[in-house]
Structure formats: structure tokens, C-alpha cells
Amino acid sequence: MRITRKQAADMLGISRRQFQMILKRFKEEGIEGLRKKSTRPKRSPNRIPEDVEKRIVEVRKATGFGPERIAVIVNKGVEIEG
After folding, report:
1. Would you list the DSSP string of 41-78?
2. DSSP conformation class of 13
3. Are the C-beta atoms of 19 and 12 separated by less than 8 Å?
4. Residue 42 CA: distances (Å) to CA of 14, 19, 31, 32, 45
5. Residue 34: what pLDDT?
6. Rounded to 5 degrees, what are φ and ψ at 24?
7. Domain residue ranges in the chain
8. pTM of the model
9. Model confidence over 10-45: pLDDT tens digits?
10. Sequence-separated (6 or more) residues with CB below 8 Å from residue 55
11. Counting beta carbons within 10 angstroms of the beta carbon of residue 14, is it exposed (0 to 12), middle (13 to 18) or buried (19 or more)?
């Protein structure tokens, strides 16, 4: 007995598109392709610069301030330096 991809997706409780992606990965990589993969981004273009991050950590340790107050302090420092 053969079933369609749509029927297989329905049996698994996933969309047809998701089933297609799983099938493609299986064909390309075998069982290894079915293992859970990291969803971590390969790059972070919006990440804050390291020097600003260090400044934030220093201010937080020294003052115990929360994010809003630290943002004001860091932004003032950037304005003065810039």
C-alpha cells in the first residue's frame, strides 16, 4: 500500500512542506539528516559591539542598575566620546 506525501504529513501531524523538508534532508544526509539541528544563527549582524558590551557589564556590576538606567549611561558615554 502506498500513501501520498500529504497523507504521510497528516499522519505525522505536520504540514506537507515540513514533510518535504524532512524527506529532502533524509535523501541528502540519511539518518543523520533527521537529527535535531541547532537553530542558533550563524551570525548576528545586530549584535552590539564588544566594547559597549564590556561597558554595560562594568556599569551593571558597579551600580546594580537595570537595563533602562544602563542604556542612558552608555548612550551618554557614546555621545561624549563620539
Report:
1. -S--TTPPPHHHHHHHHHHHHHH---HHHHHHHHHHHH
2. T
3. yes
4. 26, 24, 23, 20, 10
5. 87
6. -60, -45
7. 5-34, 50-81
8. 0.45
9. 999 999 999 999 999 999 999 998 888 788 888 888
10. 74, 77
11. middle
